[in-house]
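Example record

Each entry pairs one chain with its bound ligand, DQA.
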Amino acid sequence: MAIEPSVLILNGPNLNMLGVREPGIYGSETLDDIEALCQERAEALGLAVDFRQSNHEGELVSWVQQARADHDAIVINAGAYTHTSIALLDALTLAELPVIEVHLSNIFRREPFRHHSYVSAVAEGVICGFGAQGYLMALDAVAQLIDADAMTDRN
Ligand code: DQA
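Structure tokens for the complex follow.
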């Protein structure tokens, strides 16, 4: 049996507090709830998921570096590091993997400092404003990108 493509789903600072953190903005699901939804959707799509969260920029950078060898795509909600981290942008660039950027909230309807994303510079696409559902949309997008890639390789 073929090995399933592996997707690294990364969550940045404060996303471990989902459920209690501003539920009006971020929804009532916990990060564990979101992971369970992702595992279920990944299984249906024939993908393997490695779901992680860190409050530390350097740890996220190290995980992205390692993804180059261990994973086939990255889904990332970098939290506030989205708006500040050139280090994360550099790591995502050197990973040379398809990147899908996710945000629970619609960052463009919020404060101006949330309108700029360093992650977007390397992302295939950005999904924001759909809450936990956005992670599932990102997995659907990954499955399509990997499929399209496989088609190109065959032709
Ligand atoms: C967020 C949006 C960011 O601006 C914020 O700092 C977060 C969460 C989101 O999922 O909506 O931590 O990435």
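Residues 14, 77, 79-80, 82, 103-105, 107, 114 surround DQA (CB under 6 Å).
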